[in-house]
Design goal:
- This protein is α/β, with parallel strands linked by helices.
- It contains 18 helices and 27 strands.
- Helices cover 35% and strands 23% of the residues.
- Helix 4 packs across helix 5 and helix 15 packs across helix 18.
- Bound molecules: 6-O-phosphono-alpha-D-glucopyranose (G6P).
- The site of 6-O-phosphono-alpha-D-glucopyranose has 15 residues, from helix 9.
């Protein structure tokens, strides 16, 4: 969702902001803009479309200056067009503001300001904040940072903002409430960004702003205060990312790179945690809360999107192995339905970005009700990682492609480790633990074997690229994989796809089956294999075209199916770590063949920081 980047220092800022915005493109956006202060002149350039178009329309010569802010907008209020694009300026055009989030009381503010004579040029909620700051500044004659702070006390909603002014070429202001912002600390220069991606090539020293904090930055230092004007001392953290991780490294798309990285990502995720020699799992982040987790009466898993699918796998894993009841919740529903929770419950939220607004709200709701709240996040230092009581990082490395891939498999790996950890000495004997750990440690190599089949998936994609609908069916551990396979396809290829538990097919989806309906079955040789084969027969009898994913060496399905993909055999509970991969690659190739923008699919955002 919207991306913010800002800079104050000695370097020419235009190219720095353009590159920064390009690093934020993956978050999802529809328009882009810059405001640069040069010699007490404010130069604002913004337009609908890609950052590269903005860069070619506005060349460097027209935008000198060493102080500026940039923005990629993901439209919430008002169409994606040049006028609604950020930055927005006050009427006298001496300051400019970029904003991520939603000003919920913008209607009331707008009305009040219109009555005072303010004219609104855009349909955005953001413009209300700009004119509010202007009016506070005029009425109080306060300096701009103070006018910004006082204005923010009147705002209801969420924001990450950055402000520059032509009246003060040594001033960059930023503030946050609900939308992420990081301060990058360099030598005589400072950066502001929505996430670490634009910062890594400049500095590794960062300060994470919390909700309700405002930072006033000058070339010789910065000062953080709360919106209520309390001075704060902030800790400087070291970034873990490096530049290579956020570049494509020879791959055509980030998504392909991230799919292909999965074996290494899983190795990193399990390193030091799966300890075969000691026959145990060690999850450092959970050591202090393990007793409470072991004693939980119920575990609630809350997440959105792909992370919600990994939560469903987690439900199967934890119930089967730890024998603790699990509920899986969409974070967006959980937060508003006044859930019944108490201090016997443990809520585990799952979020790749650690910034998803609904998931963050679920964290706060669960904490308010007294539950122990744990996080499974990928982005180190993200808001959810900081606000949860304890947690486990994925260590999957940055995920840039909007469609989540390696984060999904690593989330499943973390949930597997949690389930096994809880099961040890409870339902799993030492010998069973040895067997489980052995199978788990074999997974990265098996993932490599599946990835090596990529040519097969590409060939299949060329056959199915024109389909208008797809059905994905699986059972048990592979039911969530069916949902995830369908989600991957619709996200990036815009083909309508549905996932179902295979046995539910006869309660509806079977009505859709004809020769134009490809059906993907995950039919690994587990407890329900025979039942799934019967479902395949039912589809074939109605002329549906079946793609099956099954185990290596299984030739039984060849007579029924158009395509059979064989993945290495593993324990049933580890199956999603392998079966998800062909579905990711099938979606990827279909999307590429249909000419879709794989890394930045239309309308989607990587980090959904608004409700
Ligand atoms: C967006 C992304 C999805 C992601 C979901 C949850 O919709 O496009 O890929 O699964 O948000 O994100 P999170 O960062 O909380 O896992």
């Amino acid at each position: 969702m919207c991306g913010i980047v800002g800079y104050i220092g000695e370097k020419p800022v235009r190219n720095l902001l353009i590159t920064g915005l390009q690093r934020l493109e993956y978050r999802g956006y529809d328009s882009a803009g810059l405001a640069i202060v040069d010699d007490e002149v404010l130069r604002v350039r913004k337009q609908k479309g890609k950052v590269s178009e903005l860069a070619s329309t506005f060349q460097e010569a027209s935008l000198p200056g060493t102080l500026g802010i940039g923005h990629t907008r993901w439209a919430t209020h008002g169409f994606p067009n040049d006028t609604n694009a950020h930055p927005h300026t006050n009427a006298t055009e001496d300051f400019a503001l970029v904003h991520n989030g939603i000003i919920e009381n913008y209607g009331a503010i707008r009305k009040r300001l219109q009555e005072k004579g303010y004219y609104f040029r855009t349909e955005t909620d953001t413009e209300a904040l700009v004119h509010l700051i202007d009016s506070v500044r005029k009425e109080t004659a306060l300096p701009l940072p103070e006018a910004v702070r006082q204005s923010l006390t009147q705002v209801v909603g969420t924001y990450g903002i950055a402000v520059v002014s032509s009246r003060d070429p040594d001033l960059l202001i930023a503030a946050r409430m609900g939308s992420p912002l990081i301060l990058g600390v360099g030598e005589g220069e400072y950066f502001i960004a929505s996430d670490a991606a634009p910062l890594v090539e400049h500095t590794r020293q960062v300060v994470y702003l919390n909700d309700g904090e405002l930072v006033v930055i000058r070339r010789n230092g910065y000062e953080v205060r709360t919106i209520d004007n309390e001075r704060l001392e902030k800790t400087v953290h070291e970034l873990e990312w490096d530049l290579g991780q956020i570049e494509k490294g020879g791959f055509e798309h980030f998504m392909l790179k991230e799919i292909m990285e999965q074996a290494e990502a899983l190795e990193n995720c399990m390193r030091g945690r799966v300890r075969s020699e000691e026959n145990q799992i060690v999850l450092g982040g959970l050591i202090d809360v393990m007793d409470r987790l072991q004693a939980a009466r119920r575990i609630i898993l809350a997440a959105c999107g792909t992370s919600w699918h990994s939560a469903l796998v987690g439900e199967y894993l934890i119930e089967q192995y730890a024998r603790i009841p699990v509920e899986v919740e969409y974070a967006s529903e959980f937060r508003y339905r006044n859930p019944i929770i108490d201090d016997n419950d443990v809520v585990i939220v799952i979020s790749q970005s650690g910034e998803t607004a609904d998931t963050l709200a679920a964290v706060r709701e669960a904490k308010r009700k007294g539950a122990l709240v744990l996080g499974i996040c990928n982005v180190v230092g993200s808001t959810i990682a900081r606000e949860t009581d304890a947690g486990v990082y994925l260590h999957a490395g940055p995920e840039i492609g909007v469609a989540s891939t390696k984060a999904f498999t690593c989330q499943v790996a973390v949930l597997t480790m949690i389930a096994l950890k809880l099961a040890q000495g409870r339902t799993l004997s030492d010998a069973e633990m040895t067997q489980a750990l052995h199978a788990l440690s074999m997974i990265p190599d098996k993932v490599r074997q599946v990835l090596a089949l990529d040519r097969e998936f590409e060939q299949m994609a060329s056959v199915y690229r024109y389909a208008s609908n797809f059905l994905y069916l699986g059972r048990g551990y592979n039911f969530p994989v069916a949902l995830e396979g369908a989600l991957k396809l619709k996200e990036i290829s815009y083909i309508h796809a549905e996932g179902y538990p295979a046995a539910e097919m006869k309660h509806g989806p079977i009505a859709l089956i004809d020769r134009f309906m490809p059906v993907v079955f995950i039919a690994t040789k587990d407890r329900t294999y025979d039942k799934v084969v019967s479902n395949i027969e039912e589809v074939v009898a109605r002329k549906g075209s079946v793609i099956a994913i099954t185990d290596e060496g299984n030739g039984e399905l060849d007579r029924l199916c158009e395509y059979v993909i064989r993945v290495p055999a593993t324990e049933e509970f580890l199956s999603p770590l392998l079966t998800a991969i062909p579905l990711q690659l099938l979606s990827y190739h279909i999307a590429v063949m249909r000419g879709c923008d794989v890394d930045q699919p239309r309308n989607l955002a990587k980090s959904v920081t608004v409700e």
